[in-house]
Amino acid sequence: MPLSTKNETEGGLTASTGSKIRVLIVDDSAFVRRAIIRMFEQSSEIQIIDVASDGEMAIDLVKKLRPDVVTLDVQMPVLDGLRALERIMNECPVPVIMLSSLTGRGGDKTLRALELGAVDFIDKSSAGGSMDISGLARELTVKIKIAARIDLKKLKSGTTLGHVARTVPLTTKSTDTEIVVIGTSTGGPPALQMILTKIPANYPCPILVVQHMSVGFTAPLAERLDRLCPVRVKEAQDGDSLEAGTVYIAPAGRHLKVCRRSGKLFAWLDSFPNDVLHMPSVDVLFTSVAAVIGKRSLAFVLTGMGRDGAIGAQDIKRTGGKVVAETEETAIVFGMPKAVMEAVRVDRSAPLYRIADLMLEMI
């Protein structure tokens, strides 16, 4: 199948297909463009309507074709992915999935793209060689379907919601809460940034976070948040002593659990269970915290697809801990918070711009 160039639209790609999700592919690699086109040639749900090889061409096609979803490469000539994304979100908003890699500053650029309004990203580090086409196709299919249902108003307001929240000064040490845990997925990195930039350095509890991400991206996430936040943020390591005023991001590919030795709390990284959908898993963290901390735990479930966190929230509630869910008003994807609200009677539900306040008030 021929690919479109800067001056022509690919023949046959723009034909209407009724209810199919219409996708524009933006990538400077002809190999990647062809691979993605082939993935969906026989799809009954997704149609590739055109391709672009640089950011300027992408903006023109978005305005002309009004796709349902755009996949956008981070590294491109003429106008790179970040500048193209910023213009797309300002001039012709559409759900965007970034195609990224960890080469160079890829991880940090990907996180910046999520902050600018991208829905999600896919790691294409292997795209230059023997790419796992079937695995990539499955992941891309799921994320395109999610992106097509995104409320663009939430994406556009995501970078400004944080200014609504007030920062509450913390003057007393916690007596009721020993640990705070957060679980999130799609839409999580900018949500975490919005929350954690408002938490003071003297926060009296450790904060443990599970963010569903590809292997290799959680360390750049922790480094970025550490630069931006008053609290210390780090990727959790096995055996870390869990200290107040520190945020521990679960590393992708490992479960984050807690254990207690000689009265002190420590991080425990584990590969069991290995038959769960996500590693790290929100359920696994919450269940571990329920068993070790019990009623002195406070859990937050934010934006994300699926049900991860619902079982763990039940365990936390069963042992007397508190559970808070983000409301549909601000959740980019309301799957995980909704599942938790259906599974337990949450102690509070709140929009994202109130979560930082609750982290300070409820301890």
Question: TL;DR of this structure?
Answer:
The protein is an alpha/beta fold and 363 residues long. The chain has helices at 30-39, 55-65, 81-91, 106-116, 133-148, 152-157, 188-196, 218-228, 282-292, 310-318, 335-343, 352-361, and strands spanning 21-26, 46-52, 69-73, 96-100, 120-123, 179-184, 207-211, 232-235, 246-249, 255-261, 264-270, 297-301, 322-326, 348-350.
Helix content: 25-40%
> Strands of the largest sheet, in order across it?
8-9-7-6-12-13-14
Radius of gyration: 21 Å
Number of helices: 12
CATH C-level name of the largest domain: Alpha Beta
Largest β sheet strand count, sense and barrel closure: 7 strands, parallel
How many structural units, i.e. domains?
2
Instruction: Indicate the overall shape.
Output: elongated
Distance between the termini: 59 Å
Give a verbal description of the structure.
With 363 residues, the chain is α/β, with parallel strands linked by helices. 34% of the residues lie in helices and 20% in strands. The protein folds into two domains: 21-150, Rossmann fold (3-Layer(aba) Sandwich), CATH 3.40.50; 161-361, Rossmann fold. The chain has twelve helices and 14 strands. It has a seven-stranded parallel beta sheet with strand order 8-9-7-6-12-13-14, with helices on both faces. Residues 1-17, 126-130 and 159-166 have low confidence and may be disordered.
